[in-house]
Write a structure and sequence with these properties.
The protein is an all-alpha fold and about 70 residues long. It is built from 3 helices and no strands. Helix 2 packs antiparallel against helix 3.
């Protein structure tokens, strides 16, 4: 079961912007080697696994990659 709370764990105060750092952070989440790509690879590979235990492991890893 998933519970979604739109609440930050710690308060965030941005004083100055840094476009270079923002670009790097976005590439880590959505780039070719980012979290989303890794998650989708794990979740798509689970369909070709021969037994239920290995499918479960790949499902667990894939869903863990989605959580920031």
């Amino acid at each position: 079961m998933w519970v979604y709370e739109k609440k930050l764990q710690f308060p965030v105060r941005v004083k100055n912007t840094n476009p270079k750092l923002a670009s790097y952070i976005l590439s880590q989440y959505g780039g070719p080697d980012g979290e989303l790509a890794a998650s989708l690879r794990y979740l798509s590979q689970r369909y070709s696994m021969p037994d239920e235990m290995s499918k479960g492991v790949l499902t667990d890893i894939g869903t863990e990659e989605l959580v920031p």
